[in-house]
Amino acid sequence: MSGAGRVALVTGGGTGIGAAVARRLVADGWSVALTGRRAEPLEALARELDCLSLPGDAAEPADARAAVAATVDRFGGLDGLVLNAGRGGVGSLLDATPETFADVHRVNVMGAFVTAQAAIGSLLERRCSLVTVASVAGLRASPT
Questions:
Q1: Which of 32, 91, 111, 129 could be cross-linked to 59 through a Cys-Cys bond (beta carbons 3.0 to 4.6 Å apart)?
Q2: Cα atoms found within 13 Å of the Cα of residue 92, Cβ hemisphere only
Q3: SS3 per-residue string spanning 19-58
Q4: Neighbour count for residue 64 (Cβ, 10 Å)
């Protein structure tokens, strides 16, 4: 699908699924902004793809608002938001700590909420889309 003239913001965009999504969007002609907590892989991919690199934490409202604003300022609007930022690592119920669980919830749930909330006005202006990437762990528990 041609994305010529269209703009997307990808959270968790520096590696893994986010990087693959960014590569596909750029290949399809989209302008792409990447955000993520780890600046080094984010900036390396942004150089490779000629994208906008916006280091930050998707679960922090100020970072999410800044990423959306920078994307709109640079490209003139926003046509798509890919909510991909996430993390695992809670471990078993016996090993997990409340702090670890809270951090996973903060990134995986609050990050999607906060970033979607920051972007919804821009997305509605262009009647565009948001895509949430989720783990199979949301459907099926692991043995531990």
A1: 111
A2: 4
A3: HHHHHHHHHCCCEEEEEECCHHHHHHHHHHHCCEEEECCC
A4: 27
Contact 8, 79 (CB under 8 A): yes
Q: Give the whole-angstrom CA distance, residue 80 versus residue 87.
A: 22
CA atoms in the 13 A half-sphere facing the CB of 33: 27
Residue written as token pair 């930050």: 56
pLDDT in tens, 29-83: 999 999 999 999 999 999 999 999 999 999 999 999 999 999 999 999 999 999 9
Q: How many CA atoms lie within 13 A of 113 on its CB side?
A: 6
Q: What are phi and psi of 120, to 5 degrees?
A: -60, -40
What is the DSSP code string of 49-114?
HT-EEEE--TTSHHHHHHHHHHHHHHHSS--EEEE---------TTT--HHHHHHHHIIIIIHHHH
Rg (CA), the chain: 15
Neighbouring-strand partners of residue 7: 31
